[in-house]
From TrEMBL:
Keywords: LIM domain, Metal-binding, Repeat, Zinc. The keyword Transcription regulation does not apply. It comes from Equus caballus (Horse). Residues 1-50, 52-114 form the LIM zinc-binding domain. This is LIM domain transcription factor LMO4-like protein. Gene3D superfamilies: Cysteine Rich Protein (2.10.110.10). InterPro entries: LMO_RBTN_TF, Znf_LIM. One of its GO terms (molecular function) is metal ion binding.
Length: 129
């Protein structure tokens, strides 16, 4: 089998954690890369600890927690919400990121419709995949 990671194809036996040498295809569907290393989830958490602070609530986000990202900002899953209706945005939802605020497709500011502001649409990503 071939695995696709970090813009390359790998034999399943060749994609290994730099620390524990576990074959990453055998232990999950994600891998992490940092400081030139390819890591399993456990070693990434052990080496690099927290992944930062949530852009919405300001509280720290453990490295083991899944996050949402938009325009370089990181959010807890529960904090990735529309600024107007407070509904949670999930992967696949269309949203607008304007001046540091998130808006669902329904609640985007009306100026966007008239073309006065540029809308930045993005698909949320998971961390370091």
């Amino acid at each position: 089998f071939l695995l696709y990671a970090m813009d390359s194809y790998w034999h399943s036996r060749c994609l290994k954690c730099s620390c524990c040498q576990a074959q990453l295809g055998d232990i999950g569907t994600s891998c992490y890369t940092k400081s030139g290393m390819i890591l399993c989830r456990n070693d990434y958490i052990r080496l690099f600890g927290n992944s930062g602070a949530c852009s919405a609530c300001g509280q720290s986000i453990p490295a083991s927690e899944l996050v949402m990202r938009a325009q370089g900002n990181v959010y807890h899953l529960k904090c990735f919400t529309c600024s107007t209706c407070r509904n949670r945005l999930v992967p696949g939802d269309r949203f607008h990121y304007i001046n540091g605020s998130l808006f669902c497709e329904h609640d985007r500011p009306t100026a966007l419709i008239n073309g006065h502001l540029n809308s930045l649409q993005s698909n949320p990503l998971l961390p370091d995949q």
